[in-house]
Design a protein that fits this description.
Keywords: Signal. The protein has 2 domains: 136 residues, Jelly Rolls, CATH 2.60.120.260; 262 residues, Metallo-dependent phosphatases (Purple Acid Phosphatase, chain A, domain 2), CATH 3.60.21. Strand 19 and strand 20 form a beta hairpin. It has 443 residues and is an alpha+beta fold. 14% of the residues lie in helices and 30% in strands. The two termini are 47 Å apart. The strands form 3 sheets. Strands 1, 2, 3, 4, 5, 6, 7 and 8 form an 8-stranded antiparallel sheet that branches. Strands 9, 10, 11, 19, 20, 21 and 22 form a 7-stranded mixed sheet that branches.
Length: 443
């Protein structure tokens, strides 16, 4: 059991001195209680979690934050390093991290904190761990993301934690209300399976499951090449189909190539999930967010445009996100697609916050801008997330207001939403965060 965290390795008292040392420490704590004994609130319970790997789908990272002492996270066996991390949802001053190890414990590890999930600062270091419960108190660090980074296993297996608890004080009062996580991607299921090491969509599906979001959304081209029903069953269903019931899809241009008819296989596979309102475009609410899943193959259809206007006029939620396949702005091979500009004008007039797209097979984020590409604080943030599994496209012509571009590593968007704010990360299939977006306040 740990009472405080120090930079150098801890000295372990001999058995003869152990009782004396513990008595002295207990006396000091009674005489001089510090903030760690003031019962700082538990911040990590039920929060979004990711890990470098999992032993199997039943031992995901979320199990270490569910408050159930019988469930656990376990990494892949026989490999170092491995890590487990949690997003607290808001910046906090962290005072304590409590780790309850399973038999597969860490002999050496670090507890680290980060503001953005990219740059990490050490809070505590263990060099001679022996399992059981490690209770690091008296910590001093401020950030939003906490991770345990294991560098040496204590057994021949992997790393496994029954619970990881993070305590502290949020910088700005209690964590934001209504917080939830969504995973999104476009351009997903190439015609390959996990039997091929180069097949990417099994890996992005495994990553998406490890994040364990409230639900999943897709930004089109869910299935290649012609999106027949048989293709969906042979490829998409074997990977992303594992969480089909929690998926809210949108179609892409490849869904229109089906010889049985435009969107025929897409509609047959997803059914009411893709057509909850009888059309390939629909809306729904989650928390204080209004989501619009649109069909950018038919932005010239007056019926869809009128539906969009009417739907936004009825919306009572503060935050608005739309997702569809063709991006108005893109630095990739397809480039800007003016077919989306009329929809952008409607969304901008309704003070929409966020647009998610696929089509170009890369990741890209833009600063807030208007439908004419002018940077403005009240503009729409656009993210291209077309790295779900199809072959990457290179970056070609960098567009104005483009803030970050990544082509090559496959991955998914991890969107963290509250009643008033949103931010996101682009997470690669290796579990690492390739990019973190700013935190924006909804219009």
């Amino acid at each position: 059991m740990r009472l405080t965290a120090f930079a150098p390795p801890r000295l372990r008292p001999t058995t003869a001195l152990l009782g004396v040392v513990l008595a002295l420490v207990a006396g000091l704590l009674l005489a001089f209680p510090d903030r760690a004994d003031a019962a700082d609130p538990l911040l990590s319970r039920g929060k979004p979690a990711t890990s470098s790997s999992v032993e199997d789908a039943t031992l995901g990272p979320e199990k270490a934050f569910d408050g159930d002492p019988a469930t656990r996270w376990a990494s892949a066996e026989g490999s170092d390093p491995q890590w487990l991390r949690v997003d607290l949802g808001a910046t906090a001053a962290v005072s304590r991290v409590r780790l309850v190890w399973e038999a597969a414990y860490a002999k050496a590890y670090r507890v680290e904190i980060s503001a953005d999930g990219v740059t990490w600062t050490r809070l505590a270091t263990e060099t001679a761990g022996n399992g059981g419960t490690d209770d690091w108190t008296g910590l001093t660090g401020t950030g939003r993301h906490i991770r345990v980074y294991g560098t040496a296993r204590g057994t021949s297996y992997g790393y496994s934690l029954f619970e990881m608890e993070v305590y502290g004080i949020p910088d700005s009062g209690p964590p934001p209300s209504g917080a939830f996580t969504v995973v999104g991607a476009g351009d997903i299921a190439a015609q390959c399976t996990a039997s091929s090491s180069s097949c990417a969509h099994p890996k992005t599906a495994a990553l998406a499951q490890r994040i364990a979001p409230r639900f999943y959304l897709t930004m089109g081209d869910n299935q290649y090449d012609d999106a027949r029903l048989s293709d969906f069953r042979n490829y998409y269903d074997k990977t992303w189909g594992a969480f089909k019931a929690k998926t809210r899809p949108a179609p892409g241009n490849h869904e229109t190539y089906d010889p049985a008819g435009s969107l025929a296989g897409y509609k047959a596979y997803f059914g009411a999930l893709a057509y909850p309102q009888g059309k390939p475009y629909y809306s729904y609410d989650e928390g204080n967010w209004h989501f619009l899943a649109l069909d950018s193959n038919s932005f010239d259809d007056p019926a869809q445009i009128q539906w969009l206007k009417d739907d936004l006029a009825r919306n009572a939620k503060r935050c608005v996100a739309a997702y569809f396949h063709h991006p108005l702005y893109s630095s990739g091979g397809h480039g800007n697609d003016p077919v989306s500009q009329p929809v952008w004008k409607i969304l901008y007039a309704a003070k929409a916050d966020l647009v998610l797209n696929g089509h170009d097979h890369h990741y890209e984020r833009f600063a807030p801008q208007d439908p004419y590409g002018r940077a403005t604080a009240d503009g729409i943030v656009e993210i291209v997330g077309g790295m779900g599994g199809a072959e990457p496209y290179p970056i070609e012509t960098v567009q104005p207001n483009s803030q970050k571009r990544i082509s090559g590593p496959y991955g998914v968007l991890k969107l963290d939403l509250t009643d008033t704010t949103y931010t996101w990360q682009y997470v690669g299939t290796d579990g690492s965060v390739k990019d973190s977006g700013p935190t924006y306040t909804c219009h």
